[in-house]
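Project standup — Tuesday

K.O.: blocked on the structure for the chain from last sprint. Re-posting the sequence here as requested.
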Amino acid sequence: MTKKPSKSDKRKQKPVVRDLHYLYECSVQSTDADLDFAEKVYKRRHGSTFRLLREDFCGTAALACTWVLRHPENRAIGVDLDRPTLEWGETRNLAALGDARSRVELFEANVLEVQRPKADVTMALNFSYWIFKQRAQQLEYFKSVRRGLKPGGLFILDLFGGTESMVESDEDRKIDAEVTFDGTRVPGFKYSWEQAEYNPVTGDFVCHIHFKLRDGTRMKKAFSYDWRFWTMPELRELLMDAGFEFADAYTDDWDDFLDDSDGIYRRRRKFDNEGVWVGYLVAGR
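H.V.: unblocked you, prediction finished:
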């Protein structure tokens, strides 16, 4: 007589995806939302959209790949130092582009050293630029970005803050099943964001990402970050010191009914410093 599988056995039989980059893209990146925002602020300033996007600290180049599929004239540049991650993006994300592959160019290089071709918009997302801990380093990066923009170009970066942003904490979030850029189906999993250490003297900030998969597999410290926590006033001053003409802040509002962000980022001169907020800075050349 064949034994009927138990619920736990059935759960074990469901496929899981252990690829860290797929899990990261599904849980951390929102490429369409980021590009929608970039197009909105660029069009508001220039009356038209842009065509050449540069993605700094691009990793798997998911943002760049999403951009070139939006319009047949769109082109993208990706810059990152990590060869294995770039190769992963090449064999999965870029390989899925078809003819649009010719409109993406990846550079294995330091973001401080690439200024051509000049971009309409440069984006540095997921707080990646916090890797620069010293003021002089961050200022040089911002100057380099400005030199790599066309006249009228925009530099868009994200950041977060709030009363709970500098304390040790853990946040868990359930990630729904998703089909990735190259058609891989990733079943649902749990994402955890850990703020492990913050030094108020230096601003040093250590964070980790953990994953828990449906079969019980735990992936501790799947990604770890040793950053400096940069505040919005510091960054705005640095952008202006780097020669940008303006550095505007954008944040969203909270929808009490949905218990979530309303997803609409508005330019702010002032906003409430709640527990944790996420926003964009938009600097113009």
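K.O.: great, moving the ticket to review. Residues 163-227 form one domain. Residues 1-5, 7-13 have pLDDT under 50 and may be disordered.
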